[in-house]
Structures are given as structure tokens and as C-alpha cells.
Amino acid sequence: REAGAKYPPEKGRYHLYVSYACPWACRTLAARKLKGLEDIISYSVVHWHLGQRGWRFVTKDEKEPGENVIPDPIEGHEGFTHLRQVYFESDKDYAGRFTVPVLYDKKTKTIVSNESSEILRMFSTEFDDFIEEKYRAISLYPESMRSQIDETNTWHYDLINNGVYKSGFATTSEAYEHNVIALFEALDKAEKHLREQKDGPYYFGKNITETDVRLYVTLVRFDPVYVQHFKCNIRDIRSGYPALHKWMRNLYWNHAAFKETTQFEHIKWHYTRSHTQINPFAITPVGPLPHIMELDEEVPAVTAKI
């Protein structure tokens, strides 16, 4: 919001490209809704399959589940079939990965950022002049908690958000076992924190922060995908982590920003049918059912313990 900024906040100027399958992208989609930015920043969703040329757009004849799973809607992009074309439009010599999310400036036809943590911070404050007070009051990165949030995000990212990938894509038993044990030690630590935290339903108590957003997108995928597909199976969330399970379900069932940006078909199809080196026959497991349990529902093992 600084004077003379290269990318000043403006209503209708920016577009968000995401995948419902990708946890990093869904951070930004949840934050967009939490902050009431639906009429400020448009968005569209790529096809769930990640192929050799990267994320692709659906064709006008394809009907995939989920809202806004559409061909590239940007004027001038009518011929674009893959997200990589947006990258090359922005930089013809681009040599990096074609990842989501992408925050795109329609005015300059340039990518503003493809880093989810940066976009999350932008959405938290940069568009506050355009939204209602009830949304301005939501501060995902409050100044008084920044050191606490940063410290927690660091180990959450390394050991949990990225830990599932380090476990799942390991190519030796030694690497897999090292990372999966570290992952579950971190989940134990997060469980202990939530069990001892009595101030409210969110990770740090009564107010939602970006830490809730960043951890949720991994945990909501844990039982449906990571347990079987990435062999993260020392425990599952629904039977092994009651505090984390309750925290995650509160976000899903009580906040549209989480429920409406969680698309389980895209999630399960993407991992099981894109990663053929892990799942060569591309068979998608039916369970666990339900994909997420009701707030007042528990698996029999947990009910018996209670």
C-alpha cells in the first residue's frame, strides 16, 4: 500500500491461479475467503492432474468437480492450455518450476508472486482498504504474535508441511524412516501444544492466524492421502491425535473459508494418479470414509478410550 508501489492494491486488478489438490495453493485460497476478498481478487482452478508439462487448464468441454475449475479466464489467454504459458508470458526466459499458487497482475500481464507464504501475508493486510471492518479485524499475522508465529511456522514447515513430502518421495529406506519419524515427533509436539492450550479453538487460542491456515492444509490431506500414499502411517489423525483432529474439524465445519476450499476428489485424484512412480497403476483408494468426520463423531477406538 506504499505510494508508488509497483503492484498497488486495486479491486479487480489481480487474479489467483490455484489447484485444489495443492496444499500450498489452498493456503492462499482459504486466506482470500477469510479476508473477504472474493470481490477484490478473482481466481480459477487448474485441472487436478499434474503432467509432464505441469499444471494444465481444463478445456471448455471438461466438467470437473469444484467451483471455478475453468479454462484460463484472463483476456488474451484464450489459447493458453497450461499454466507454464502464464509464466513465459511474464518472463520469456523463465527456467524455474511452474508451480501454484500464482498471483497475477492483469494490468501489467505479470506474475506478482508464486510463493504461498508471501501471498498469504499480502492477503492478510494489503487489501484492507477495500473490505468491511469485520474482515479487517481478522489479522492473520498480528504484530504482537509475529515471533511466536514465525518460530512455529519454521518447524511446522520443515517437519510437517514438507515432512510428508520428504517421507513420500524418499528413495531409500533410511531417508524415509528418518523423515517419517521426524514428522510424527512434530505431530506429537503440535498435539501437546493444542492439548495444553486452553484459550480458544485455534492454534494460538481465541484468534485465527496464518499458522492455522498453514497447518490445516496439510492435516486435512493426511488421512485421505498421506497415510497410504506417502506411507505416513505410524498413526492417523482421526484415531491418533484427538486434539489436532478436533482443531482441524472446527476449522472445516465452522468456517466456510476452509470447507469450501477443500475439494477431496481433486486431492485424492491428483496424488494417486499423478505420482505414477509411487502408484504405477493410478488406483485411487476409496477410503478413509468419510474423508473428514463430523465434529461430534469419533472412530470406535477413540470412543472406547473416551
TrEMBL record:
GO cellular component: cytoplasm
Coiled coil: none
Regions that span the bilayer: none
Top-rank lineage group of the source organism: Eukaryota
Span of domain GST C-terminal: 142-271
Residues reported to bind glutathione: 55, 97-100, 115-116
Active-site residues, Swiss-Prot/TrEMBL: 22 (nucleophile), 165 (proton donor/acceptor)
Site (Lowers pKa of active site Cys): 226, 271
Gene3D superfamilies membership: 1.20.1050.10, Glutaredoxin
Record-level Gene Ontology MF annotations: glutathione transferase activity
Entry-linked Pfam families: GST_C_2 (PF13410), GST_N_2 (PF13409)
Protein name: GST C-terminal domain-containing protein
Organism of this sequence: Photinus pyralis
